[in-house]
Amino acid sequence: MSARLLVGDQVVVISGKDKGKRGAVVKLVDDGERVVVSGLNMISRHTRPTQARPEGGIIRREAAMASCKVMPIDPSTGKGTRIRFSGEGSAKKRVAVSGADLPAVEKRVRESQESRV
């Protein structure tokens, strides 16, 4: 089955404390059931000083959110949209409800994200 969201997609949050904010998908977690979006769903992590991080302190970072809470942005309208798939087999394309093709994410970006994990 093809993925509804891919790393690098521009998305808008549809519910929660960050409702209406936009960002790019940085990472897919749990086979795409949760996503990390750049600059959204920020948490404060209180850390102790360690040898690896001697300063310790409060670190702010993005936390994962449920993928059902975000929608990809339609490139033609600039609004959130549902996704449908057109084509067969390996020729499948992700298409917005308006009919516009969603931009394909480069394999380089996806491979670099997978190598970090």
Summarize the structure.
The protein is built from 1 helix and 9 strands.
Task: Outline the structure in words.
It is built from 1 helix and 9 strands. The strands form 3 sheets. A 5-stranded antiparallel β-sheet has the order 6-3-2-1-7, with no helix packed on it. A two-stranded antiparallel sheet has the order 4-5. It has a two-stranded antiparallel ribbon with strand order 8-9. The protein has 117 residues and is mostly beta strands. It has one domain: Roll (SH3 type barrels), CATH 2.30.30.
> Given the structure, what is the number of helices?
1
CATH architectural category:
Roll
Radius of gyration: 17 Å
Element pattern in H and E? EEEEEEEEEH
What structural class do you assign from the helix and strand content?
mainly beta
Strand coverage percent = 35-45%
Strand order of the largest sheet: 6-3-2-1-7
Q: Can you tell me the residue ranges where pLDDT is under 50 for at least 5 consecutive residues?
A: none
* β-strand number: 9
CATH class label: Mainly Beta
List the main descriptive attributes of the protein structure presented here:
mainly beta, SH3 type barrels, 5-stranded antiparallel β-sheet
Task: Produce the secondary structure layout.
Elements: E1 10-13, E2 22-29, E3 34-37, E4 42-47, E5 57-62, E6 65-66, E7 70-72, E8 83-86, E9 93-96, H1 107-116
Antiparallel strand pairs: 1-2, 1-7, 2-3, 3-6, 4-5, 8-9
